Input
Amino acid sequence: MKHLTFGAAALLASGGMMTGMAAADGHAAEVNLQLQWVTQAQFAGYYAALDNGYYDDEALTVNIIPGGPDIAPPQVLAGGGADVMLNWMPSALAARENGLPVVNIAQPFVRSGLMLTCWADSGITEPADLAGHTVAHWFFGNEYPFLSWMSQLGIGVEGGDDGVTLLQAGFNVDPLLQRQADCMSTMTYNEYWQVIDAGITPEELVTFRYEDFGVSTLEDGIWALEENLEDPEFVDRMARFVRASMRGWAWAAENPDEAAAIIIDYDETGAQTLAAQERMMGEIALLVEGGDGRLDEEAYQRTVDTLLAGGSDPVISAAPEGAFTHVVTDAALAE
Output
C-alpha cells in the first residue's frame, strides 16, 4: 500500500512548536467537522472534547456540523463546507475512486455496529434468503456495505423474485414497523433499539451482524482532502484536532452517562432523550474500545477486500492507492 508522505512530517516531530506558531496571532485555528449523521452519542467523543475544553487546549475552534439523511459528507467536503468529514470507509473509497481525493487521517472506530434487522415471520433465516424481499436502507453512500454483501451473495438489488428491492430509509424505523420492508439496516447502538422501544420483542426479529459474517467494513473514520495534506499548517491543525478528539473519546467511554448528557445539551433538534443516549453511548464504547485513532492496516485491507469481492458490481473496482496516511496520527500520538 502506498503511504502518503509529506514534507510536514519533520515539522510535526516538533508539534509543540507548531502549535505555538499556529496560535501566535492570538486566534485559535478553526476546524469545521462534518458529521455523518445527526447529533447523537455516535459522535460523543467530539462533543466531549468540545465541552471539556480539549480543543481549547490545542488552540482550536471546532465547529461540529450535524448530518442527516439527505446530507452526503463527501459532497460537503468537496464543496469546501468542512475541513474534515466523518465517513464510512466504503463511502469514502467509492468517492475517491470517482474522483474526490479523500484520505483517511484517523480511525477512532475499530469495529462495525452495522446489522440487518428482519421480521422473523418473513421466512428469512439467513442472508441468502433476502432475495425476493424488500430492505430499507439509508442512501448517500451508507448503502455500499450492503450492496457489496449482496453482490458477494449473487443477489441483485433491482427487485424481482431473485433480487432485493431497496427502499430508502430516513430518520426512523417506520419502514420496518409499518411492514413496508421485511428488513432494515440498523446499527447496534441506534435503530435496533428504536424497534425494541416500539414494543417489538427480540423474538419477533432475526438479526445479521456484518461482523459475524466477515463482511464488516470500517466506519466513522476521519477524512480530509489530499491536497490539503500538502500544507504543513493543515497537517499540524489536524494532528491537534485528532489528539483532542481522541481525548474526548477516552473520556466519553469512561463517563458514558455524562457523555450522553453532553449530547442532549448540544442536540438542537430536541429529538434525543437522555435514556436513549446513555444506552447508545454504552454500545458505542464497544466500537471504539482499544483504538487510539491510528488506522489498523489489517482492518483497512479487510475493508478493501470486502468491497472488491463484489463480483460483477463491486463498490470499488481497484485497490486504492494513497487512501490513508499515518502522518497525522503519528504526530498526534507523539506527545
User: Anything to note?
Assistant: DSSP finds 14 helices and ten strands in the chain.
